[in-house]
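Researcher: I'm preparing a figure for a lab meeting and need a structural model of a single chain. I don't have an experimental structure, so a prediction will have to do for now. The sequence is pasted below. Please return the structure as tokens so I can convert it later.
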Amino acid sequence: MAPATRVVAPRTSTGFEYTFPAIRGIQAGREFYVSMCPLRLIPKIFIFDEDELSPELRAQRILNKGRLPALTKYILDNPSDYVFSALTASVDGEMDFDSHSADGPGFRTGQLRIPMDARFLINDGQHRRAAIELALKESPDLNEETIAVVFFHDAGLDRSQQMFADLNRHAVRPARSIGVLYDHRDPSSQVVREMTGRAKIFKGYVEMEKSNLSARSRMMFTLSALYYGTQALLQGLDLKQDAATELAQLYWETIDKALPEWEMVRTRALTSAEMRRDFIHSHGIALHALGRIGNSLLRESTSPAKWQKRLTPLEQVDWARANTDWEGRAIVGGRVSKSHQNVTLTVNYLRNHLGLGLSPEEQRVEDAYLRGDA
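Model: Understood. Here is the structure written out token by token.
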């Protein structure tokens, strides 16, 4: 049985072949080859033709077309510094390697020749391949740019399926916090990094790498929680980075004045662990909700004196986990919940304390909660 989700190279008369400059390697006793392929060749060589097969007859997941616009936009928006990792492919056909020399360093470098009627299977990188095809249609200048391709001999469907499983078995998505820390394109990431580095209420109290805090951590916040809260705060506001950073810092410093436990941690009257255990206001759901509240106030008035005054009632909010008002809103089954619905219910609770109206969507969620449907 032929491997599924195969890609078929254009068939030509016998004797015609693709020639790739390549490096030869050995893994698990099997030869494989690494080459640099011009982007213009990728859609021509790797053509999907078996999307309708059942999973057990495929060696790849079905192409998720919903991912393609973001990947394509990434290439087109960053033509001078986009980065794509190598594609991995199995070749159902002969692969002849002509080394540059019989021994020495040249033994591993040479020309890889593959017949044009060989069939190619992408083991890893089908979404990158599809995004490259779409990007080339909008920007032909990308034609001569290259991407690394790792070629393996196709040893049948079972081997190809195992390769897919092995390539993805240990793949771990990095924590959102370290993604924010290392992302220099996203304006919100830049704002949060700069703010946490200079604001005394955050400096030294933000976990920059992990998105979850251990019970004994001395940190008060995660970078990812501050990111989502600040992103919600600045959403739709047309501000340059410096102005956005200053505004965000001023807002969170204002929030800090309404939450005495934050100050108690900094003065060591309370430990971070105790504060997180007994209160919810440093958790991601609270920061996100406070960001949304701030966004509403800033849209009404950018005057600090006005929006800061509107936040004064926050001092009367009982943020303790023991407050039964949080059950079903910010806490579900004794645990803080980060779901979109729970964020909205937390926003609603704060809006009511501040005397702010609810949007139609917020009112719908609130009504469902009061009916017991949430």
